[in-house]
Amino acid sequence: MHIHDRTFIVSGGASGLGLATVRELHTHGGYVAILDLNAEAGMKIARELGERTIFLEADMAKTDSITSAVNTITDWTKTTGKPIGGVIPAAGIGIGAPLVSKDNRPVSMEKLDFVLNTNLRGVLDLLRQILPHMTTNVPLEPDGERGVLVLVSSIAAFGGVPGQASYVASKGAINSMALVLSTELAPFGIRCVAIAPGHFDTPLGQKSTAQLSDSRMRKFEATFVFPRRRGRGEEFASCVRHCIENLMLNGETIRLDGAARIPSRL
């Protein structure tokens, strides 16, 4: 799938890994629809990039909000004549809580739903609404490709610290979706790949470690193998671009973590 003159939808595109992806796709000639709850940040990046970019305020936990965004995007593609080539659902919430507290109280379902509704339900909702607009694309020669989904998982799906059950469950589900969707969508010429980033220098990544003590932070940093630093947004975005452009990448979850592994405790 070539990026030039194709429309790509990036949820969570106003910050972090989503924003880095928006910039990468736009730089390579793509049309980009940014979905995010942060209207101020989203409008700012849309104004900065200018042509070939639109911003839509959207709540990934609410079907009506996603529907409104999808309708606007499809109208936009009719105006530009640039078909939807891919979806990158990068919106995510990392807030966690133990299922049972130290005083033996169960976590509220509201806290669990807050994470699952954005990280999992919202991804499925966005994909199910967008796919009918991709399956009818004119297939590209010579293989008949019509589009690609690049899902965003996390290395937490392969191991996580206590208190992150809802987040880990949501990202483990993303991993599982990559293979089944690649098979399900193969007759339409649509691929599905997932990327599982490790520790990246993003607002979400910084927030997740902000409360660590100095000793725990040293243990956290000791998990870095090479390079011995957090990842950068442009490195994630480069991987997204490769997933879009390399037709043989399909049905797989790619760990993008510099060989880091999450310890069971910090």
TrEMBL record:
Keywords: NADP, Oxidoreductase. GO terms for molecular function: oxidoreductase activity. The keyword Oxidoreductase applies. Pfam families: adh_short. Residues 6-198 form the Ketoreductase domain. This is Ketoreductase domain-containing protein. It comes from Neohortaea acidophila.
